[in-house]
Amino acid sequence: MLNMKHTLPILLFIFAFPLFAQTDARIYDIINKVSAERIKNDVTTLVNFGTRHTLSDTISETRGIGAARRWIKSEFERTSTDCNACLEVFYQKDMVKKGDGQRITKDVWVVNVVAIQRGTKYPNRFIIMSGDIDSRVSDPVDYTSKSPGANDNASGMAGTIEAARVLSKYKFESSIIYVGLSGEEQGLYGGKGLAAYAKEKGWDIVGILNNDMIGNITGVDGVVSNRDFRIFSEPVPPTETEEQRRARRFYGGEVDGISRQLARYVHKTTKTYMPEMNPMMIYRLDRFGRGGHHRPFNDAGFAGIRIMEAHENYTQQHQDIRLEDGIAYGDVLEHVNFEYAKKLTAVNAINLASIAWAPPAPTTVEIGGIVEPSAKLKWNKVEGAVGYKIYWRDTTSPTWDNYRYVTDTTEHTLNGIVIDNYFFGVAAVGKDGHESPVTFPNAVFR
Fold first, then answer.
1. Which keywords describe this protein according to UniProt (predicted)?
2. What are phi and psi of 15, to 5 degrees?
3. What's the whole-model pTM score?
């Protein structure tokens, strides 16, 4: 006969476990539905447009950026047809005048292709996945030469199209945007235009996952890896006020801005559902001295990160196609590893889904416990949250390593956890276990 004295705690653990484990079988289904073959077909189609330079032909049906963006729009529309018109597909465009930057040699419409999958509960709350449409060769103003841009960035664009196909089969509480951005190589113009459009429309943006080169596994550093990838994020928003900057000197938060929390979220979700992958959080806005299309969103005050391969090969980026000193230069199709691009597309898709299924993050988190033995936290009640996770970590740790799950409350004392020795944050948890990104304390009480 079972000893109920010992069985009861086990049963309580079993029934309580779903509240603590962020696991959802649908996420594994999403991973399995991403197709390397479809990504290969899409990258091949984009390469076959010859060039996708921002200043290239817009009239031809077979060559140039005009043909490319029309095809991308048609693919989003095809996906929308398959999901009973679940996507709102449109162009968002801005005129950029000649001389507005050294790489704009004539007036040009910078046209983004946008597809919105509206959420059922928070239709004005958005998580975005982006890829870049445009390509280039060695000379950034050469818009006629062959510029296949297979990895940079047909891989990221094809991944975005594929994520839309897969996720369109599901319903989400928050909205997801899939977008092809133009003008990246000329000065991040597509991102600037869409970020301004988002401000104008009053969009509540959780963040943007900018995918720029997700197809190369053989690095110029001699490393070959189909598991490593990088997540770039800047530490604090460039829009922070002087008052916020001064507060950080006393309360911390130097590496805890909204973009860094989004990076940690992607890291955690990936390690939970795709443990074979090695997400590398890079504490930098982008590669040294370089930029990507998440930056304009950061500049506008939105969270944004760059997801990309870990081991670049510079002979295959921004290069005229040629053979020189025995080295084949050029961003051509044969250098793209489509199984790897599939993995990074899945990384994006599961994070889009997790955020879109989760309740919003708390907007206000207050912290107290100065010269006391225990840290105290208060936060606003979040609609749709069944509980909250109070996270803390060593001040030197890159990840949220400890948490306590609470329900039916918006305040909690962490007895014995001294405020001086850790950083803290709070995430809202939904009924299926999906969490919001962590909110770092933005107020102090005594």
1. Aminopeptidase, Hydrolase, Metalloprotease, Protease, Secreted, Signal
2. -75, -25
3. 0.94
pLDDT digits (tens, 9 = 90+) for 117-159: 999 999 999 999 999 999 999 999 999 999 999 999 999 999 9
Place of tokens 């962590």: 438
Is-contact 133 113, C-beta < 8 A? yes
Residue 168's nearest CA partner among 203, 214, 118, 211 is 118
Neighbours of 102 (CB within 10 A): 10
| Tokens at 289, concatenated | 């001295």
Reading the block at residue 217, the tokens are 């596994």
CA distance 111 to 190: 7
In angstroms, the CA 360 to CA 430 distance is 9
Residue type at 206? V
- Do residues 361 and 438 touch, judged by C-beta distance below 8 A? yes
Predicted confidence (pLDDT) per residue in 430-445, tens digit: 999 999 999 999 999 9
Domains observed in the chain: 25-357 (3.40.630.10), 365-444 (2.60.40.10)
pLDDT at 23: 82
Sign of CA dihedral 338, 343, 348, 352: positive
Q: Which residues contact 204 (CB under 8 A, 6 or more apart)?
A: 122, 124, 125, 126
Amino acid at 194: L
Residue 26, token pair as written in the block: 């649908």
